UniProtKB/TrEMBL annotation:
It holds the Pfam family DbpA. It comes from the Bacteria. It comes from Allohahella marinimesophila. Residues 4-32 form the DEAD-box RNA helicase Q domain. Belongs to the DEAD box helicase family. CDD domains: DEADc, RRM_EcDbpA_like, SF2_C_DEAD. The lineage of its organism: Bacteria, Pseudomonadati, Pseudomonadota, Gammaproteobacteria, Oceanospirillales. Keywords: ATP-binding, Helicase, Hydrolase, Nucleotide-binding. The gene is dbpA. This is ATP-dependent RNA helicase DbpA. Residues 243-390 form the Helicase C-terminal domain. A motif (Q motif) lies at residues 4-32.
Length: 472
């Protein structure tokens, strides 16, 4: 019998028969690695991209353990958006077709509260919902969780991106301590490791993508002409600035990080790129804290495509899916170079890093290559860039709300205000980040004005708030 066949698992007969009827024979990598420990009742952290088959992995785990005759909530599944919660509930119902009388209920924001109370009174074996609405039901006592024996955090990284960490912690505190915990995430950043440490007991970690290695990051060199005699750095467009623009036009990255060695050149390059139409911001030590916060918010939530930074300012920056890292200057030492380059090619993806250099800096390149025991490919000359950017605008835009932690604003409040009656779909909402006095929410460009009207028309925590669109 094949090890990756569903028939190799110890599943209840009704589930196994239904899988055969559905045409499920071979397991995906995430299913074959996670299902055996899930079925043994162990806590599991599984890292896998959307479409990897994770819903069936935890869905089968929940259904196999369920006591159908006991009509109370035994499993709780938390998802970042209403759309994903609906999708997960549909898939669990499909997997459960062979088991009679199983009730799966969705509890999401943006839907009327009253009917949900009625549904809960009739009981449900599995509740699938968004953190904000689940938290609301728990606070009002309409959702009883004393018999929950399984907790699933689906797309946990996205829930943290949307600012739900405190809400998740609050939900977990209400659950029985004797339970199985399953955490599914596309990435495995430190924040996920921290929540796993708090929530889980001796979890088994499963990562179906390979971690980034040097081999997954392609490193190129691009030679630029030396600076004309008498021209100072930051004065007009230098050969390096033109090279940056030519590389942007050639590779057209959605997300790009440029490293400069000085604060002055960092600011000058970001200003130049913005003047010719690129979505670019600077990050360096001379920024006020509020400006730094806004800069990082906009880059991390994809409202800005290009971040120009110094090494010191970028310390602790943890942003996945950077398509291109560009060294405007050669790093001062090989370890700094390695740290810069490691920002791309994360979460199992491939990455690209390009270093600009002048002929007189060849000795620095030779030293770097010798230290890393690698030879970087030299990129051929590119055509000069156009006068203005030909890249499309960033996919997202950021709204700033003049209320934050001090006003007890939570992500669910913001999500409810913009996805409620007459609002926008939850899948159009990106990261929600809450600071002491301000909150920021990323939205798809095409729905931003609608969301802005919703926020300014509705109340948060019973009071009117002002929201505005952040510009570069």
């Amino acid at each position: 019998m094949k090890q990756d066949a569903f028939s190799a698992l110890q599943l209840r007969p009704e589930l196994a028969d239904n899988l055969a009827d559905l045409g499920f024979t071979s397991m995906t990598p995430i299913q074959s690695q996670s299902l055996p420990p899930i079925l043994q009742g162990k806590d599991v952290i599984a890292q896998g991209q959307t479409g990897s088959g994770k819903t069936a992995a935890f869905g089968l785990g929940l259904l196999n353990r369920l006591s159908v005759d006991t009509f109370h909530t035994q499993a709780l599944v938390l998802c970042p958006t209403r759309e994903l919660a609906d999708q997960v509930a549909r898939e669990i119902r499909r997997l459960a077709r062979g088991i009679h009388n199983i009730k799966v209920l969705t509890l999401c924001g943006g839907m009327p509260f009253g009917p949900q109370i009625g549904s809960l009174e009739h009981g449900a074996h599995i509740v699938v919902g968004t953190p904000g609405r689940i938290d609301e039901h728990l606070r009002k006592g309409t959702l009883k969780v004393e018999n929950v024996s399984m907790l699933v955090l689906d797309e946990a990284d996205r829930m943290l991106d949307m600012g739900f960490q405190e809400v998740l912690d609050g939900i977990v505190e209400t659950l029985p301590s004797a339970r199985q915990n399953l955490l599914f995430s596309a990435t495995y950043p430190p924040e996920i490791q921290a929540i796993a440490k708090r929530v889980m007991k001796s979890p088994i970690l499963i990562q179906v993508e390979s971690e980034h290695t040097d081999a997954t990051i392609k490193q190129l060199l691009y030679r630029v002409a030396g600076m004309p005699v008498g021209q100072r750095s930051g004065e007009g467009e230098t050969a390096r600035t033109l090279a940056v623009r030519a590389l942007i036009e050639h590779y057209r990255p959605d997300s790009m990080l440029v490293f400069c060695n000085t604060k002055v050149e960092t600011q000058a390059l970001a200003d130049t790129l913005r003047e010719v139409g690129y979505s670019a911001v600077a990050l360096h030590g001379d920024l006020e804290q509020r400006d730094r916060d806004q800069t990082l918010v906009q880059f991390s939530n994809r409202s800005v495509s290009i971040l120009v930074a110094t090494d010191v300012a970028a310390r602790g920056l943890d942003i996945d899916s950077i398509d291109l890292v560009l060294n405007y200057h050669i790093a001062r030492d090989a370890e700094v170079h390695t740290h810069r380059v490691g920002r791309t090619g994360r979460a199992g993806g491939s990455g690209l890093a390009i270093t600009l250099f002048e002929a007189r800096e060849q000795h620095k390149i030779d030293k770097l290559q010798a230290f890393l025991d690698r030879t970087f490919e030299l990129l051929g000359e590119l055509p000069p860039p156009p006068k203005h950017s030909t890249l499309p605008p960033a996919a997202m835009t950021t709204l700033q709300i003049d209320a934050g932690k001090k006003q007890k604003v939570r992500p669910g409040d913001i999500l409810g205000a913009i996805t409620g009656e007459g609002g926008i779909p939850g899948d159009q909402v990106g990261k929600i980040q809450i600071f002491d006095q301000f909150a920021y929410v990323a939205l798809r460009q095409q729905v931003a004005e609608h969301a802005l009207r919703q926020l300014n028309a509705n109340k948060l925590k019973g009071r009117s708030v002002r929201a505005r669109r952040l510009s570069l």
